[in-house]
Amino acid sequence: MLTDHERNRHARHLALPELGEQGQGKLNRASALIVGVGGLGSPAAMYLAAGGIGRLGLVDFDTVDETNLHRQILYGESAIGERKLDAAWKRLRDINRNLRIETFNDRLSSRNALPLMEPYDIILDGTDNFAARYLVNDACVMLHKPNVYASIYRFEGQISVFDATRGPCYRCLYPDPPPPHLVPSCAEGGVLGALPGVVGSMQALEAIKLIAGAGEPLIGVMLMFDALTMTFRSIRVPKNPNCKVCGPDPEIRQLIDYEEYCGPVNNLEISARELADRIGKGEQLLLLDIREPNEWSLGHLEDARHIPMRQIPAQIETLPRDVEIVVYCRTGGRSANVQRYLLEHGLTKVKNLAGGLMAWAREVDPSVQVR
What we know:
Layout: H1 4-9, H2 11-14, H3 20-29, E1 31-35, H4 41-51, E2 55-59, H5 84-95, E3 100-104, H6 113-117, E4 122-125, H7 130-143, E5 147-153, E6 156-162, H8 170-173, H9 186-189, H10 195-212, E7 221-226, E8 231-236, H11 258-261, E9 269-270, H12 272-280, E10 285-289, H13 293-298, E11 305-306, H14 312-315, E12 324-328, H15 333-344, E13 350-353, H16 356-363
């Protein structure tokens, strides 16, 4: 039964015959876990909180950065440098004081994915990389839970509901992750700030429909949105009878950490402090900045050479083979992929700056500007 406060708060929901008091009661008793509280997770969390979901779990391990603010609407300028989960908790409690919020300040991995997801009715994938998407998908299949999936890039967004008990999973559409060095990130290609607001809100909408049993969820359908032309189109996604994870004889029975599987060969990393020490000693190193030109122009390491990630294959022959190369980007992800590519193509003295230029600014030189 709803309280008088809940009836008043959700009066516009109760006026909808497809939802009504019964549907609102289901929402109040339901739980959802959002993996990644960034551009997609921000609007999804806010609308689920406003819509009256009873319990909301948030998984993220990042802090609020100024570059987040144009699209991650959970956070304001006063939250810069704060843990995202702390800032999100305060904002969501202000939206709905009755909401039970559970936060998990950790990176999703094969170690924690199943125990994190198991207590929740529905999972929303707000991640921004393939390794995490495959992990979320596989865990949802193993736990028999619906996965409200979305992704964004530049001006385009995608959304679907992958529920292997009633339709396909993510691997039915994309069986294996692409080679990591071929995958551009939002930092490289950019993303229109309002785009994740549109797509993340649709994630919340699909979650509410699933919980309340209203309408037709996007099971077996991928909805694609083009912000430049303001057009939507949808494609049918059939269930793959030979799917590696949701098929009748699954090949994958345990979770895989693709960041490790596809990570740098031999995990050759160097910390910011170690690199600073070696530079201070005058050691001969080639600092290779593989960020985009707009990132480079804001700030970079002194004497670094700049080759944007996508130009590496064309310029690999210009790199020395007798000098140790330290590759870096903003946070260490893109540079790890470039490191792997260089090692696979015959360069043997290549290290990745762990944590990227963000770690350098945090541990060595705070004056370095990082976008």
